[in-house]
Amino acid sequence: MHTAQRGEQAERKPVLEPAEIGRALTRIAHEILERTDGGAGVVLLGIPTRGVPLAARLAARMAQVEGHPVPSGSLDVTMYRDDLRLRPSRPLGRTAVPPAGIDGTIVVLVDDVLYSGRTVRAALDALNDIGRPRAVQLAVLVDRGHRELPVRPDYVGKNIPTSQREAVHVLLTETDGKDLVLISDEPRDGGPASGSASATGSGGRG
Amino acid sequence: MNRHLISAGDLTRDDALLILDTADELAQLADRPIKKLPTLRGRTVVNLFFEDSTRTRISFEAAAKRLSADVINFSAKGSSVAKGESLKDTALTLEAMGADAVVIRHSASGAPHRLAGWVRGSVLNAGDGSHEHPTQALLDAFTMRRRLGRLEGLRVTIVGDVLHSRVARSNVLLLSTLGADVTLVAPPTLLPYGVGVWPCATSYDLDAALPKSDVVMMLRVQQERMTAAYFPSVREYSRRYGLDARRMAMLPEHALVMHPGPMNRGVEIAADVADSGRSTIVEQVTNGVTVRMAVLYLLLGGADGP
């Protein structure tokens, strides 16, 4: 909340317009289908907050192309984060795994911004406690660089080179009333691991 | 949120809802093959129980273990307390062992409050004398919200030995914060002095209150705390204030029957009522673990201090 307010004061530059977000998601949906034999055994799990509507949109696009439903859900990673002790306790997001579970499936993790890679590491731990997928892949709308762990995405909407002083804000119709990706200059007190990311814009969670 | 949980009255509406919402998410854990989270790895929770308890102690222990905390159980029997060690010395010992949280049950009202001044970790009140039992109130509220979908405007009737009940006091404070309408029903001798300023209504007439209740919570008659004759006989008490099948039939269709346990079957609640489909008594125990996990996570999961 606090960071978001500061973000409004700083200049925000749009880097992805609604139509571009739509095209990027359509392309990712096709790429997933190509790489997974038409989406057989695929489960899309979005990471709250904004990964969840993204996963649902990808699932809808894939279902439209292939003509069979693609299960999607959400995976909250809060309890598995490595920076819990750096900030006050935060509320939990929702975990909703499709009823058939994830054993033997190909799980595609979906998030809005890939930054340090620490969220993805937490997500891998969280998955481990839920079941044993055959493979895990990663789809992100924006890859902004500055990785701190050996994590790489399988599907990327757009690579946006950033400086660590900038924040990336992803807005989605489901959560924010409109689709837009913005970048703003925001002095922050450290790298992506500093835990000072904004709660609303998800710019620095990585 | 405060660093300690000593009174249900310390919780703001937002605090209480955050705990209940967190518990809602944690409740899913019960359906998973691995019912454990790594969140409190390396943290130590001490269960300091000066009074007998099975339910609450095991519940706190299970909650802490499911969050991967280390748990040290300390009961007064067989400890140095039996040799006359004071609460303060016990507290300093725990402090030296590096406890991040102390869950305390004590027969003296106010013991957790005193303890909070002596230790650096969080203090969780697991029942102090006839004062408060905030996690019980939280699990009761959680059970009501899960079963009935809301707390705002819910009519809750709490019946029986209010005088000796820490559960009743904590429930009145929490439920009024959350917008429920609470009525206490008890014989005049079992209502505490000053109950007039509590945020609830009072009545002596159970039969009149039942048809207007969404939840009826029966309290245990705490004979071990009774130092005087508060009612003529157990039989008379049971006839006037016990919940039997006839009285249960006066409740609305959707109403719940709750009891914090342990029950005196045949005194405040009849066996067939306790085992009926409306009774949430077993569910309350399950929910207790979930709610205590939520509290431990919110108190210990984040950074130290504000």
Give the gist of this structure.
With 206 residues, chain A is α/β, with parallel strands linked by helices. Chain A contains 5 helices and 8 strands; from the N terminus they run H-E-H-E-H-E-E-H-E-E-E-H-E. In chain B, strand 1 (44-49), helix 2 and strand 2 form a beta-alpha-beta unit.
Q: How would you explain this protein's 3D organization?
A:
The complex is a heterodimer of chains A (206) and B (306). With 206 residues, chain A is an alpha/beta fold. Helix content of chain A is 29%, strand content 23%. In chain A, helix 3 links the parallel strand 2 and strand 3. In chain A, helix 2 crosses helix 3. Chain A is globular and about 45 Å long. The relative contact order of chain A is 0.21. Chain B is α/β, with parallel strands linked by helices and 306 residues long. Chain B folds into two domains: 141 residues, Aspartate/ornithine carbamoyltransferase (Rossmann fold, 3-Layer(aba) Sandwich), CATH 3.40.50.1370; 146 residues, Aspartate/ornithine carbamoyltransferase (Rossmann fold, 3-Layer(aba) Sandwich), CATH 3.40.50.1370. Chain B is built from eleven helices and nine strands. In chain B, helix 6 links the parallel strand 5 and strand 6. The mean pLDDT of chain B is 93. The interface between A and B is medium-sized, with 19 and 23 residues.
